[in-house]
Please model this.
Amino acid sequence: MIYKMGELFCGAGGLAYGAKQANAETKGEKFSIKHVWAIDNDLDSCLTFRRMITPNKPGVVRHSDIRDIDFSELPNADAIAFGFPCNDFSVVGQGKGLKGKYGPLYRFGVMAIEAQGPKWFIAENVGGIRSNNGGETFKKILNEFAKAGVGYNLTVNKYKFEDYGVPQARHRYIIVGMKKDLNILFMTPAPITKNKNVSAKQALEIPPININICNNEKTKQSPIVIERLKYIRCGENAWNANLPNHLKLNVKTARLSHIYRRLHPDKPSYTITGSGGGGTHVYHWAELRALTNRERARLQTFPDDFVFEGSKESVRRQIGMAVPPRGIEIIFEAILKTFARIPYKHINPSYDFKNPKMDQYDLPITVRDS
Model:
């Protein structure tokens, strides 16, 4: 069984690569996922997606503003995926939520579901969406997803991707919707690397990165940045390091913890972002420099032969905005196993949108077998 997938806001293909790698098999029947359409408004991202996800069918990818798309005219999809833009929900942003430029874009996911009536869908967004407007924004979005078309049963979980094989503390809500008339409930897959996370050093050094590989250009650091990094120990940032006065940053507000923060070699990386000015590029624990894009891609679990198109800054954005392929692959594989009736280890989801006060995210995990 091959599930035909459509994807909104597809970016460079992190989610798509995870879907492409996922598979399940039972009694000789194979279950997999294949994209039949994908949409993004960024040309470089579309070029990357075409090259790495659908090289033999470049027409699958449409470079377009989502507002110009008639979903009923696209090839019909069994599944729909979208990491709807997170800018207005992120704690790094201004928290504008549904009043921002990007917040309302989730509705195009609803429109796609209603137009195509997929068997299932998967949506992704930042952890900060849970607290926007006292939780009311998230409840509204989930209710619209649940009522789309003929209706969907939702499983909502905040994943700590470092517990799913990703060498990065990246926490994201993943919403899986199963068409109600199928009478199928998706169970949240259990963590696979909890208490044995992959460290930044393991990710970047095993195996070593070929210095001549694509997307591996180093950033030329200014003398003051080099001097500042000398005083910042691994795991520290510009605010908690013991910096001399002439190297301190003259910032009174928005003291984000990742500013000039150096990685700790024995822990997962902090969250890789796709934009930001000075001090936001993720810094090596031993060398006095920012990471290369290829190193950032490693921390996002892209394979080294995954080539990103565009300028250095465009590539940085594509990597930082992506869903980590390894983490999402585990979720896609669990979806395929659900349809194949293959048991897998699972946990209770961390969020019950019908009773949102019951947030289990920080409670101990109990792993169960199907």
Summary: The longest helix spans residues 325-340. The longest strand covers residues 29-40.
